Amino acid sequence: MLNSVEEKILDTIDNVKDLFSGAHNVRSNGKAISRSISKNIDIINKEDKPGINVVIKPNTIGESVHVPVILSDENFKDLVYNTFDVGEGSDVVVVAGCGIHNCGTKTTQHDGIHDFIVRKGAHLKYVEKHYAGGDGEAQKIFNTKTILEVEEDGVLEMELIQIKGVTSTKKDTEIRLHKNAHLIITERIFTELDQEAQSHINIELVGEDSTAQVISRSVSKDNSKQLFYFNMKGENKCRGHIECDSIIMGNAQVTSVPSLSAYNEDAELIHEAAIGKIASDQLMKLMSLGLTEKEAEETILKGFLK
Amino acid sequence: MLNSVEEKILDTIDNVKDLFSGAHNVRSNGKAISRSISKNIDIINKEDKPGINVVIKPNTIGESVHVPVILSDENFKDLVYNTFDVGEGSDVVVVAGCGIHNCGTKTTQHDGIHDFIVRKGAHLKYVEKHYAGGDGEAQKIFNTKTILEVEEDGVLEMELIQIKGVTSTKKDTEIRLHKNAHLIITERIFTELDQEAQSHINIELVGEDSTAQVISRSVSKDNSKQLFYFNMKGENKCRGHIECDSIIMGNAQVTSVPSLSAYNEDAELIHEAAIGKIASDQLMKLMSLGLTEKEAEETILKGFLK
Q: Which member of A146, A204, B163, B291 lies 3.0 to 4.6 Å from B131 by CB, making a disulfide possible if both were Cys?
């Protein structure tokens, strides 16, 4: 079903064992090539546009859904709309890995538009991993638009990870948190060469006692460019915290623009950002233990993006 | 020369003793009403537009220039262009206080456009205090555009203070720092009622080893609105640090948007922001010492904006 290149990509963007043991939908070059559902998790094709509806029954505990996308055709643009309905009181994991392999010269692009509703008291862990490989000159592009609504007492954990190889990416994430809903976002982005990455995260703390925490870390090497926009609005008694750290190397450029807006006297919003290079004392220490400068650098970056 | 109301305003926005003992230009309702120069500091009227050129000779040490603006006429709009040339190796203080008194119903507005050049090795302390009084319903508006160029080894200390009473303000500050130039900005803004305040600060760290530090604190009460935009660009080996804290009360709204951009791998940029209400434990402590809640609140706000 999958050729060896596709298998390798899948292994990078997802855990293959977990994937095939539960509900999943594997999309390769625009077509579903493997699908499995469970008693509690249904996957249905959309009728009006490409994509699927994933419906998770209330009180589904400990299950996962994997919806990886693989693209190995060059000169191909994939566009998909996925909708996830996470039922009341569930506790589930959704893994959306996206991998491109392109050794040619013509662009491969994946645009994913995702809608989530995390219903009352549900807990969703959402993992998104982006990776591209191939020696060619071709552009490997990922764009995502992700809209998430977290109902009362819901919890959303997001991991947004760009591993490497992506020529250009634009991620747009919008989250609304209702009463006592909680959000934790972990973002990791690595760019090198002439790559460009943009991440916009909009968080609306709508409900009383909602909380949000964003921890974003990135490494920008060579001539690559990164742009971060974080927008957090406190519209009720709430707490929000954004922390973003970037390591910059070579001729790279990083811009970080967080925006905090408080519309309620009981909104507590905090932001911290830092852009800088690798600490030289850390480099020295590892080099004194026998590592070359390059090895020391790689060790530090790995630890930073962990 | 000054009536009693004007004297009172002057006393709020400047130190009258210091003012009249050195170089100064007092502008009242659009006209210069008192001027004094010194051996080292010249003040010349602009020929093409309203305003003055202040020329400070090289190596002028320990002197000050006061250029207060007082407006007591209602339905009056004052526009002034001032240019300051701070000579090489000087160490001087410039105080630009602006005060409006309006008991009527029609708007009084002051727009000040300031240009500074801080020449090689000079040290400038620039103090800007805004205040408005009067019981009327009239709008009391201040807008400023301040452009500052700090040459090699120059030091610029800025104090931007909005005391109270200003219906609407928009401050736009642009600073370019050259080799080994240093900047420290202290900003304090207080708004209440339906007042609105906007502050845009753009800092370009152009030169090697330039540094910038911004400490902004604000209090927003009642229905007032505050908007802060901080934009710091590191274009060379440099260090920059922005810290902004806001206390929000009642139905006030505060938006804080810092933007860090690093265009050099030796640029180190840091930002911290927090929006929240007065810490309740601080209130409790002061109230347990016998203060009413209102007194305790005022004491804390005073300390915060000090």
A: B163
pLDDT attached to residue B1? 66
Res A2 pLDDT > 80: no
> What is the tally of structural domains in chain B?
1
What integer pLDDT is reported at residue B226 of this predicted model? 97
What's the pLDDT at A285? 86
Which residues in chain A are contacts of B271 at CB distance < 8 A?
256, 258, 271-274
Q: Which residues of chain B have pLDDT under 70?
A: 1
- The mean pLDDT value for A250-256 works out to 95
Ranges of beta strands (E only) in B87-181 are 91-101, 108-118, 123-133, 140-150, 155-164, 168-177
Indicate whether B305 belongs to any domain. no
What are residue A222's phi and psi, to 5 degrees?
55, -125
Q: Give the integer Cα–Cα distance in Å for A218 and A216.
A: 7
Q: SS3 of A90, please?
A: coil
Q: Indicate whether A244 belongs to any domain.
A: yes
The pLDDT tens digits for A78-132 are 999 999 999 999 999 999 999 999 888 899 999 999 999 999 999 999 999 999 9
Q: Which residue of A has its CA nearest to B243?
A: A272
* Cross-chain Cβ contact B258/A255 below 8 Å: no
Pick the residue of B257, B264, B278, B283 with the most A CBs within 10 A to test the interface with A by mutation.
Answer: B257
Structure-block tokens of residue B106: 């029609």
Q: Which domain holds residue A172?
A: 4-279
Cα–Cα distance measured from residue A240 to residue A210, given in angstroms and rounded to the nearest whole number: 8
Q: Are A145 and A117 in contact (CB under 8 A)?
A: no
Task: Say whether A274 and B269 touch across the interface (CB within 8 A).
Answer: yes
Is B304 within a domain? no
Instruction: Report if residue B98 sits inside a domain.
Output: yes
Give tens-digit pLDDT for A28-59: 999 989 999 999 999 999 999 999 999 999 99
Q: What chain A residue is nearest to B238 in terms of C-alpha separation?
A: A276
